[in-house]
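[step 3/7] inverse_fold.run input=structure_tokens len=203
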């Protein structure tokens, strides 16, 4: 399986990092070795001193497809979850400066903790979904999917132009404003519509 990630999908987050607003979605990948499941702890890597949390809604692909039209995209996922797109912001800044690929800063071991997945039918409106991240019990990031530049179906259509989607693939759909550093000892807890989905420690 593979993990596809969308960057710069929330206007306020683009502004906080002084990034350019993209004319098409920014896409990058993480390998399966990035995944942490079942609230496994995240071990702070030695190559960075500025690991940032980015809380994101995650789609789980349920069938194979490519060149999917937006109007049919909803058929390609039944379940959603929440995850953290951990980013070594210091490394990423260096790579960006040199115009190099982001993998070392984005796709390292444990950089994709994910929750369990729940049926999307459980939610009234996927285009108006609240989610948030607490660090040590305090709200750090708060988002609503209505603020996305590209919605779930548009993301699936776009990524499937380049990458064949397969059953079990995951799509991280971008982070809202409020990204920031984590420290050893922090506890991160992520919620969809107020329901706790994911909770783990930084070690
Ligand atoms: Mg992200």
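[step 3/7] decode complete -> sequence:
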């Amino acid at each position: 399986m593979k993990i596809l990630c969308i960057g710069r999908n929330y206007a306020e987050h683009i502004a906080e990092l002084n990034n350019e607003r993209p004319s098409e979605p920014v896409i990058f990948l993480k390998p399966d070795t990035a995944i942490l499941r079942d609230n496994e702890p995240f071990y702070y890597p030695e190559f960075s001193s500025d690991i940032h949390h980015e809380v994101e809604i995650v789609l789980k692909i349920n069938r194979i497809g490519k060149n999917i039209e937006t109007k049919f995209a909803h058929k390609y996922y039944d379940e959603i979850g929440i995850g953290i797109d951990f980013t070594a912001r210091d490394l990423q800044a260096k790579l960006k400066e040199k115009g190099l690929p982001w993998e070392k800063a984005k796709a390292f071991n444990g950089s994709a903790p994910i929750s369990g997945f729940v049926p999307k039918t459980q939610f009234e409106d996927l285009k108006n979904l609240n989610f948030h991240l607490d660090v040590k019990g305090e709200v750090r990031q708060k988002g609503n999917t209505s603020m996305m530049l590209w919605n779930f179906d548009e993301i699936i259509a776009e990524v499937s132009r380049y990458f064949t989607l397969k059953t079990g693939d995951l799509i991280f759909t971008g982070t809202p404003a409020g990204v920031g550093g984590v420290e050893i000892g922090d506890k991160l807890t992520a919620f969809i519509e107020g329901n706790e989905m994911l909770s783990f420690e930084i070690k």
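[step 4/7] annotate
The pocket of magnesium ion is lined by residues 5, 7, 54, 56, 85, 174-175 (CB under 6 Å).
Helices lie at 11-16, 89-97, 103-106, 152-162.
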